[in-house]
Amino acid sequence: xxxxxxxxxxxxxxxxxxxxxxxxxxxxxxxxxxxxxxxxxxxxxxxxxxxxxxxxxxxxxxxxxxxxxxxxxxxxxxxxxxxxxxxxxxxxxxxxxxxxxxxxxxxxxxxxxxxxxxxxxxxxxxxxxxxxxxxxxxxxxxxxxxxxxxxxxxxxxxxxxxxxxxxxxxxxxxxxxxxxxxxxxxxxxxxxxxxxxxxxxxxxxxxxxxxxxxxxxxxxxxxxxxxxxxxxxxxxxxxxxxxxxxxxxxxxxxxxxxxxxxxxxxxxxxxxxxxxxxxxxxxxxxxxxxxxxxxxxxxxxxxxxxxxxxxxxxxxxxxxxxxxxxxxxxxxxxxxxxxxxxxxxxxxxxxxxxxxxxxxxxxxxxxxxxxxxxxxxxxxxxxxxxxxxxxxxxxxxxxxxxxxxxxxxxxxxxxxxxxxxxxxxxxxxxxxxxxxxxxxxxxxxxxxxxxxxxxxxxxxxxxxxxxxxxxxxxxxxxxxxxxxxxxxxxxxxxxxxxxxxxxxxxxxxxxxxxxxxxxxxxxxxxxxxxxxxxxxxxxxxxxxxxxxxxxxxxx
Length: 555
Fold this sequence. Notes:
- With about 550 residues, the chain is α/β, with parallel strands linked by helices.
- It is built from 23 helices and 14 strands.
- Helices cover about 45% and strands about 10% of the residues.
- The N and C termini lie far apart (about 105 Å).
């Protein structure tokens, strides 16, 4: 075969064309890159949205086409405003990677990306992040390489600012027009769809991330943390508090424990055998303020609560702990989680996460038993009334199997992966229930410690911050928008225990306690119940939300 014939072969010509294409660096306008990015996001980064909103796109082509135009336009409006020539490569690269990760976690755990979820991500510490950053997240990142290569390969034309502004206005108008074209053919079914399934807007990537991030930044501007405004400045302890023995209330804030798997609530498995033997008061009908720690924790310690939910007001004001401290009740926050989310700002805090107890800690995390180490000594440092908060790691997922020592692995086999999709539901539930069993042990041990602590009338109150989904309806973990969050994420366990001394000094009526325990309660009751238990009076106090008020003699 001659050299000429070889060079003219179709395979060589195809390779040469491919090589030329790969080496080419075409000049395009920034607006063209934006349009290309919008089409990429609609076609390749919104699989979860398409499965939720257009389950039959081939047989409902008009509906699918309209949604395609709307999704493209929604992303287009944001990119038109955010992407400019000098920062286009960086911004689009970040959005491509973020969209890939968001799509992966939405598909793997059934989560939605709203402001609360973005806030959770921004406030997640490295320990939590490392548990979610599994090998399974690498595949969607690898799939973004072609898009990233295009973004960094093309050359962007320079234009005068007048020309740039004119093109940008035209592009923005085009995106609005595209949205109109998407709406007109399906106005009636689209209106019904958005009314009945409003949550699907949290699946449109990357618009969901951008909108949610903008909301978070507007509520919590970056920079130096703002000083929280005081509340309950009129708070004082009742004179009756000086006529009795000092009181020690241990408030245990659980993590990700759901009512459905709580043994005392009638769950098929007895996940709370030790508490059952301690004769605690169980509350089977308690609703959380939110479906994530980032929402629930500040809310449950706030006077606003879910009934008057105001994110800015809750985060911008002090908590009930500050009110107690102001009234003379000493407070201490012992943390084995990711901080108090502003609830304990300026108050005494002990971070238990970095302890080196070989039996309870592995250098990264500590089991919740660490919260009881030195608890009695911590109580003795103050002679008057005090409230000690124990913030548990509890059942924080997805690595439930790491939340308890090996001795508490009662239910097997267990899921030993952060990728819950690799495990059966039985394995996931087994690991989760084992972690609940360890929480039961820690609470029972805390009660035993308080029962023998001299010099104090003692009590313990436990309530979880939110629940968890374990595969029901394809959902895992927590953090769903409150309006659509399933009951598994919002219904939480709560128990109370009072020492004989506390019962006697308060003259608690046992029959009354049993009666109020069966009534529905919520996180909104915690603020006022803590004030009542510590005899603190303030204009913020609402008697109707003090759970134990009617059971105290003379009230």
